[in-house]
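STRUCTURE:
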C-alpha cells in the first residue's frame, strides 16, 4: 500500500506501521526530517511544504495521514490571545485539506489536530484528547489525563519512546518535537481501520460527514 505521511515530524504516528508499506513522508524542517530518516531509513523523505505537496500529489496514494500545525487552533493559543490582546487567525489550511480529501481523494485518509478553542467547522471524531477527521470509522482511544505541561511532556516522551540524545537539540526544541508526536498506538489503530476498509469493501464503515 502506498502511504503519504504529511507533516511527518519524527514519526510518532508512523512508529508501529512496520516496513511492508511504501511510505512517503513530507516534513518542512530539515533537522526534523533528518531524524525521521534515521528512524525510518526505508521511507522516502521529501523536505518541502506538505500543504502544497498534498494538493499536487494526493492521487498517487492509497492512504493519507496529515497532522497540520496545531498552535493556532489550540486552547493554549486562545489563552495567549487573551493575555497578549493580539488576536491571531486560526490557520485555515487545516480545513482546506479536509475539504480537498473529502471531495477528491478516492482512498482512505485521516487528518489529526488538537481539540480547538472554537467549535470545529467540520465534525471530527474526538479521541485521545485530539480531533480526527477521516472517511472511515475507527476505535476511539481513551483521553489522556492532562496535568501541567511538564507532566504532559513526560507522558508523551515515555509513550513514543524515542532516544534523541545523540542529536544536538535544545531542550525547548526537543520538547516541541516530542509534544508534536501522535501516540504510536493511535497511529496503528487508525491505519489498521483504514486497511480494513480497503481490504474488505463489504464492510460498511459509514460516512462521518
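SEQUENCE:
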Amino acid at each position: 500500500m502506498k502511504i503519504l505521511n504529511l507533516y511527518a515530524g519524527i514519526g510518532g504516528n508512523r512508529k508501529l506501521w512496520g516496513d511492508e508499506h511504501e511510505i512517503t513522508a513530507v516534513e518542512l524542517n530539515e533537522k526534523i526530517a533528518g531524524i525521521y530518516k534515521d528512524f525510518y531509513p526505508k521511507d522516502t523523505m521529501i523536505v518541502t511544504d506538505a500543504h502544497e505537496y498534498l494538493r499536487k500529489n494526493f492521487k498517487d496514494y492509497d492512504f493519507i495521514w496529515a497532522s497540520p500545525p496545531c498552535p493556532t487552533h489550540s486552547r493554549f493559543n486562545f489563552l495567549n490571545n487573551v493575555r497578549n490582546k493580539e488576536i491571531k487567525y486560526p490557520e485555515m489550511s487545516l480545513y482546506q485539506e479536509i475539504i480537498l480529501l473529502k471531495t477528491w481523494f478516492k482512498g482512505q485518509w485521516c487528518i489529526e489536530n488538537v481539540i480547538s478553542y472554537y467549535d470545529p467547522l467540520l465534525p471530527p471524531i474526538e479521541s485521545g484528547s485530539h480531533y480526527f477527521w477521516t472517511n472511515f470509522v475507527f476505535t476511539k482511544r481513551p483521553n489522556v489525563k492532562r496535568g501541567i505541561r511538564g507532566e504532559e511532556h513526560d507522558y508523551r516522551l515515555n509513550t513514543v519512546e524515542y532516544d534523541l540524545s545523540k542529536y544536538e537539540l535544545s531542550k525547548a526544541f526537543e520538547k516541541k518535537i516530542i509534544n508534536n508526536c501522535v501516540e504510536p498506538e493511535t497511529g496503528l489503530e487508525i491505519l489498521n481501520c483504514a486497511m480494513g476498509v480497503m481490504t474488505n469493501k463489504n464492510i460498511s464503515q459509514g460516512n462521518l460527514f
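REMARK: The helical segments are 30-39, 50-57, 75-84, 93-104, 149-160, 171-179, 184-199.
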